[in-house]
């Protein structure tokens, strides 16, 4: 599937964030929503209300795909559960992790107000779906589950439909694009070899080929890379003018999970004790997670990788990625265009020091 040339343009990634394109696109999206025949009027009313009030959630976590966001959100949920007197435990579901206290986040898209959750189509939202199911069927004496306090999305700013984006407290999570692409390709291969059709294939329309090593298992390199570049360019622009935004790096979260997540959760006003975060992220180390996965499923789970990092990125694709980054990437968050193994050197995440001006 080819990405339209307009949406690949770095200028578009910036212009679409701002007036007049952003509100215009929002309006068109709302019009399409009203015209949908698969939603009833009650669902449409909830979606319209959601656009204007975002379910009264003010924290936003936009993350590059395959940048550790589900691990991060799981750790925060477990830490919050421990802080509230819960057992801080979690289970492995069907390609997702479910914290006993419930997921603390939901998605910033129409699935939330419409109640249109399909974990069979998108297993990544399994913990959100299961939390909602369990909240609707609480047993006598069962401790209430969390209400979401964070909105999560993998989209660039210009694709988010919410009237309150400029008022939100935004923590952007980024990762080296090469490593993110390698991780996506690894997950794609795992699913295909397990007989599961990846979301990027099932949503791309009818296929004329069968996935195989000769065709990279039909992995859509250009589309996936274009999405990553749009994410970087869009949020890189937002960082220059939004009054309440910080950028976090995947490598920093791995190096100091409790410390960086303490800064992040304090930024969101969650006030989770450091000792709870320390214990939570100890419980979700790879070694501990592996204990919760059936032994025969360890090698085929796409949610966590037990292999040498960057092992599966084809050499010829490295040059392809570099060429696209050189042509289209404007905001690189310190990673540059080359495939570097170390995290960019930068000071702790802070809001822009210059006076922010909303476009």
Strand order of the largest sheet: 4-5-1-6-7
| Overall form | globular
Q: What value does the Rg take, in angstroms?
A: 20 Å
Q: Are there runs of 5+ residues with pLDDT below 50, and where?
A: 347-359
Helix content: 40-55%
Biggest sheet statistics:
5 strands, parallel
Beta-strand segment tally:
7
Kindly estimate the percentage of residues that lie in beta strands according to DSSP.
5-15%
Q: Briefly note the structural class of the backbone.
A: alpha/beta
Structure annotation, total helices: 15
Strand and helix order: HHHHEHEEEHHEEHHHEHHHHH
User: Could you give the distance between the termini?
Assistant: 33 Å
Integer average pLDDT: 88
Could you give a short description of this structure?
This protein is an alpha/beta fold.
Describe the protein's architecture and organization.
It is a single chain. The chain has 359 residues and is α/β, with parallel strands linked by helices. The protein has helices at residues 5-8, 10-15, 21-35, 41-53, 69-83, 111-114, 126-135, 177-193, 199-202, 221-239, 250-255, 257-267, 274-283, 286-291, 315-328, and strands at residues 59-62, 90-92, 97-99, 105-107, 150-153, 169-174, 245-249. The longest helix is centred in the middle third of the chain and has 19 residues, at 221-239. Mean pLDDT is 88; it is low at 347-359. It contains 15 helices and seven strands. A hairpin with a 4-residue loop joins strand 2 (90-92) and strand 3. The two termini are 33 Å apart. The radius of gyration is 20 Å and the shape is globular. The chain has a five-stranded parallel sheet, sandwiched between helices. The chain has a two-stranded antiparallel ribbon with strand order 2-3.
């Amino acid at each position: 599937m080819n990405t339209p040339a307009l949406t690949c343009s770095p200028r578009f990634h910036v212009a679409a964030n701002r007036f007049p394109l952003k509100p215009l696109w929002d309006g068109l999206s709302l019009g399409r929503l009203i015209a949908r025949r698969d939603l009833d009027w009650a669902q449409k009313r909830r979606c319209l209300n959601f656009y204007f009030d975002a379910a009264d959630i003010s924290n936003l976590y936009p993350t590059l795909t395959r940048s550790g966001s589900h691990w991060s959100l799981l750790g925060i949920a477990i830490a919050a559960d421990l802080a509230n007197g819960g057992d801080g435990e979690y289970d492995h579901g069907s390609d997702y992790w479910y914290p006993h206290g419930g997921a603390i986040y939901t998605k910033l898209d129409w699935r939330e107000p419409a109640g249109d959750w399909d974990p069979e189509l998108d297993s990544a939202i399994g913990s959100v779906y299961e939390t909602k199911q369990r909240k609707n069927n609480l047993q006598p004496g069962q401790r209430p589950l969390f209400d979401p306090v964070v909105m999560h999305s993998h989209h660039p700013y210009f694709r988010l439909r919410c009237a309150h984006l400029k008022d939100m407290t935004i923590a952007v999570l980024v990762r080296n694009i090469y490593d993110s692409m390698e991780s996506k390709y690894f997950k794609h291969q795992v699913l295909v070899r397990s007989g599961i059709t990846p979301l990027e294939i099932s949503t791309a329309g009818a296929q004329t080929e069968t996935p195989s090593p000769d065709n990279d298992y039909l992995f859509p390199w250009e589309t996936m890379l274009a999405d990553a570049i749009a994410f970087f360019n869009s949020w890189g622009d937002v960082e220059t003018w939004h009054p309440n935004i910080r950028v976090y790096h995947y490598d920093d979260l791995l190096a100091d999970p409790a410390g960086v997540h303490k800064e992040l959760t304090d930024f969101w006003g969650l006030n989770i004790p450091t000792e709870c975060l320390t214990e939570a992220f100890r419980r979700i180390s790879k070694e501990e997670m592996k204990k919760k996965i059936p032994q025969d499923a360890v090698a085929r789970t796409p949610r966590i990788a037990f292999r040498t990092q960057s092992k599966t990125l084809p050499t010829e694709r490295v040059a392809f990625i570099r060429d696209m980054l050189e042509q289209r990437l404007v905001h690189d968050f310190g990673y540059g265009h080359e495939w570097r193994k170390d995290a960019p050197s930068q000071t702790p995440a802070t809001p822009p020091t210059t006076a922010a001006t909303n476009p």
